[in-house]
Amino acid sequence: MIFKRLAVGAFLCPILNKRFILCSSSSCFHSLSPGTAVSERIGDLPSKEVASSFKDWFRSRNDVLLDHIFEILSSQADDSVSRKSAELALSRLGLRLSEEFVLKVLHHGEDVLSCLKFFDWAGRQPGYHHTRATFNAIFKILSRAKLMSVMIDFLQTYTNQRYMHKVRFYDTLVMGYAVAGKPEIALQLFGRMRFIGVDLDSFAYHVLLNALVEENLFDVVEIVAKQIKMRGFENQITSGIMVKNFVKQNKLEEAEAFIRGLVSNGGAVDENVVCIVVDAFCKQNKFEEAGRLMNEFQEVGKFSMEHIYSIWIRDLVQAGKVDVAMEFLHSKKIAEGYVPDLFRYNMLICRLLRENRLEEVCDLLMEMKEGKISPDKVTMNAALCFFCKAGMVDVALDFYNSRKEFGLSPNSLAYNYLINTLCGDGSVDEAYRVLKNSIERGYFPGTKTFSILADALCREGKLDKMKELFVVALERNVVPSDALYDKFISALCRANRVEDGYLIHGELHRLNKVATRKTYLHLISGFNKSSRGDIATRLLIEMQESGHTPSRSLYRSVIRCLCDTDHPENQFLKLLEMQLSHPEPIIRDYNFFIDGAGHAKQPDLARKVFEMMVRSGVEPNLSSEILMLQSYLKSERISDALNFFGDLCKRRKASRKLYHTMIAGLCKANKPDIALELLWEMKEKGLVPSLQCYEELVKSLSSNKNYDIVVKIIDDLEKSGRHVSSFIGNILLLHSLRSRELYEAWVRSRDVLGDASLSGSLTLGELVGAFSGRIRVSGNIENLEEVIGQCFPPDLYTYNMLLRRLSMNETMDYAYEVFNRIYEKGYEPNRWTYDILVHGLFKHGRTNEAKRLLNEMLQKGFDPTDCTRQLI
C-alpha cells in the first residue's frame, strides 16, 4: 500500500501556510517555508494515488452491508407496492438474522422510519424472534427522536402483532412505557404483574430502574433497587444506575463514596461506573476533580481504562480543551499504548478541522489508517472536508465521484466544503453538479455556500443555472441576500434577459422581500433599453411604495423611454397622474417631469406640466423656470426660449442663474451671437457671468472660428479679475494646433512678441503663438510645461495637447519625458495619450519604440485611431 511506503504529510492549503512534506515514515514531518507551493509539498505523489489509497482504506470498512440495507429502506416510497419491493430486496440479501445483527443494524441507522421498517420486517421473518434487547433498542431510537406518540401507538398495537408474542408480554410493555417517558404507566403494569404472580426479569428491572432515574423519581428508585437486590439481580449495571442516581441529584461526593465502597467490598463495579462520575465532574467544569478520580482508580488496577480515557477525551473536546485532549492522547499512547476508538478519533478530527489544524488532522487520519481502524461515514466526511480545506480539490472531487464504491453519504458540511472549494478553484460547473446531487439527497447548501456558488455562476455568466438555483432556493423558502439577488438581476439585465430578472423580482416580492434600490435601478434601466416603458413605469411607482426615492436621472430615463412610444403624450401624462396621486404632490415631482420631458426633447409636454403646476396652486420656483428654459433650448426652440425668458424677466428681476442657463443653452445650440448679446446685457445689469458662460462662449465661438471675438471674451474674463480655466486653455491650445488663425486674431488685438525665451514667463497669447508655430521658441523646449502652468492649471487633456505639439517636431525625447511626468502628476494616460505618442514615434521612424509602446497600449485595452493605423 502506498501509505506504508510514503506518508502523506502534504495535504496543505497554501493560504494557511501549513508545513508538510512527504517522507519515508509517517512520523517524519519536515518544516517548509510558508511560501512553498503545494506541488512541492506533496513531492512526486500524484493526486490520483492519494485518492486511490484513501479509497482502498474506506473500502475496507465493515458497515457497507448496513449502508446498503438503509439505502433500500430509505429509497422506497411509503405505499404497499414500494414496501413489497423493499422487502423483496432485503430478502435477496440473504441476511442471517440474530439478536446481535439486528441490534447492529438498529444502532447503525440514522433514519427513524427506516429503523422501524427494518424492525417490522425482521420480526416477520421465519426463524427469528425479537428479544427484549431489540425491543429496548427500538424504544430508545424512538425516545431519542422524541417520537413519544409513535412509541405509544407502537405499544398500544403491540397485542395485534402476532410475532411480538414471542417475547414476554408484560416485560416488553413495562420497558416500552419506561423508555417512552411514561414511568407511571410502567409502574402500574409492574403492579399488575406482581398481582397475578408474574415478575420482571433482570433486563426489564434495569430498564425500569434507569427510566425512574431519568425521570427523577428518586424515592421509587430506592424501592425498585431493593427489589433488584432481593432477587439477586444486582450487577455492574445496577451499580452504574445507582451512581447515575447520585449524579442526577448532584451528589457527586456520595457517588465517589459509593464507588469506593463497592471497590473495597468487592462489589459489582466496572469502568462504566467510574465513567459516569468522571463525566459528571467534567460537565460541571470540574476537570481537576475528574482527573484526580481517574488517576485514583487507575492505581487500583481493577479497571480497563480505555473507556474512561475515551470519556475524558470526549469531555475535554466538548469543553473546547482540544490541546489538553491531544496532549493526553499522545502521552497515553506512548506510555500505555492507548488507541482511541473510532468515535474519539472522529470527534478530535472534526474539532481540529473546525480550527483549521490540518497537520494534526493528517496525523490522526494516518494513525487510523495504519492502525486499521475501520472508518465510518463521519470519518469519510471529515476526510472529504480535509481535502477541501487542504486545497486538494482533485482528490476531493475524485473521492466524491467514487462515493458509491465505499458507501460514502456526504453530509451537509461536506457538501458545503466541496462546493465552496470547487468554486474557489474555478470549477463552477462541477460545483453546480455537486449541488444538484446534494439537493437530490435532501441537503440544501447553507446560506454562505449558496451565496458563493450563486456569485460564481453570475460572474461566469451561467445565468440559466443561476435561475434554476434561485427557483430551487425559493421553493425551499430560502431567500437570497439583498446583494446576491441584486447581482443576479443585474447580470440578467446586462445579458438582455430583463424579463427573467423581472420574474425573479416578482417571486421575491411575493415572499414580501423588499427589493433594494440597486435592484430597481437595474430593472428599470433594463426595461428602458428594451423600450418597455410600461413596465419601467410600474417599477418606478413600486420603487417609491417600497420606500426608495427615485433620482432625477431615473425619472429622466423612464420619461425618455415613454416619449419614444407611439403615443408619448398619453404615456407621459399617465405616469404623471400616477405620480401625483401617490403622495401629496410637491414641486420636486413637477420639476422631475419638466426635466424628463426636456431631455426627451418634448418641450410641449414640459410646458403642460409647468402650466398644470400653476393651475394646481403650486408656485413654480427658480428650478422649475430653469428646467423649462432648458427644455426649449435642448430642442433648439430658440424663439420659444427667448419668449419664455422675456416673460420671466417681466414678472420678476432676472437672476444670474437664468442668464447663465440661456447663455450656456444658446452656445450648445450653436447660437453664440445671441448668447454674446445676453452676456453684455447681463453685465450692464450688474450681474457677474459665471465661468461656465465664458467657457461655453469660447468653445462655441472657436468652433465657428470667430477668433477675434474669442480674444475679446478672454480679455473681458481677465479684466473681471478671474483666471483662465483649464477648459478654456485647452480649447485655445487645440485650435492653435489646428491653424494659425487664432494667433493672428490675437496679434490683431494685442501686442505679442515675435520671439521668446522659455526661461522667462510667457503671456497666454505667446503660448498660443508657440503652439501654432508662429513664435519661435528659444531655449529648452521642455520648459513648455512650466509655461503652461503659469497661464492655467494643466490637466490630462493639456498634457495630451503638449505631447501632440512635441510630436510635431524633432522633439520626441522631450515627449517621452512629458509622458513619464504624467504618472508623476497622478494622472493615468488614456487612449489619446498613447495614440499621440505612438503616432509620433512611427512618424519619425522610431519603429521599435513605437511597437513597444503600441503593445503596452493594446494590453491596457486601448485601440489606435485610424490615422495611426495607417502609419503602422
Give the SSE layout.
Elements lengths: L1 H4 L32 H4 L5 H13 L4 H11 L5 H13 L6 H10 L3 H12 L8 H13 L3 H9 L12 H11 L3 H13 L6 H13 L3 H13 L5 H13 L3 H14 L5 H13 L3 H14 L5 H13 L3 H15 L5 H13 L3 H13 L6 H13 L3 H9 L1 H4 L5 H13 L3 H13 L6 H13 L3 H13 L6 H13 L3 H13 L6 H13 L3 H13 L6 H12 L4 H14 L5 H13 L3 H13 L6 H13 L3 H14 L4 H13 L3 H13 L6 H13 L3 H13 L6 H13 L2 H9 L5 E3 L6 H9 L3 E3 L5 H8 L4 H12 L4 H13 L6 H13 L3 H13 L6 H6 L1
Parallel strand pairs: 1-2
Pfam families: PPR (PF01535), PPR_1 (PF12854), PPR_2 (PF13041)
Protein name: Pentatricopeptide repeat-containing protein
InterPro entries: PPR_rpt, TPR-like_helical_dom_sf
What can you tell me about this protein's structure?
- By secondary structure, the protein is mostly helical.
- Among the domains are: 2-57, no CATH class; 410-473, no CATH class; 479-550, no CATH class; 795-872, Tetratricopeptide repeat domain (Serine Threonine Protein Phosphatase 5, Tetratricopeptide repeat).
- 69% of the residues lie in helices and 1% in strands.
- Strands 1-2 form a two-stranded parallel ribbon.
- The longest helix has 15 residues, at 322-336.
- It is elongated, with a radius of gyration of 43 Å.
- It starts with a helix and ends with a helix.
Indicate the overall shape.
elongated
Total strands: the figure is: 2
On the 0-100 scale, what is the average pLDDT? 83
Supply the helix-strand structural class: mainly alpha
Strand content: under 5%
The name of the CATH architecture of the domain at 795-872 is Alpha Horseshoe
Please give the alpha-carbon distance between the first and last residues: 64 Å
The low-confidence parts are 1-44, 162-167, 753-760
Main sheet strand line-up:
1-2
Give the C-alpha Rg.
43 Å
User: What is the CATH homologous superfamily assignment of the domain at 795-872?
Assistant: Tetratricopeptide repeat domain
Would you give the CATH topology of the domain at 795-872? Answer: Serine Threonine Protein Phosphatase 5, Tetratricopeptide repeat
How many helices? 51
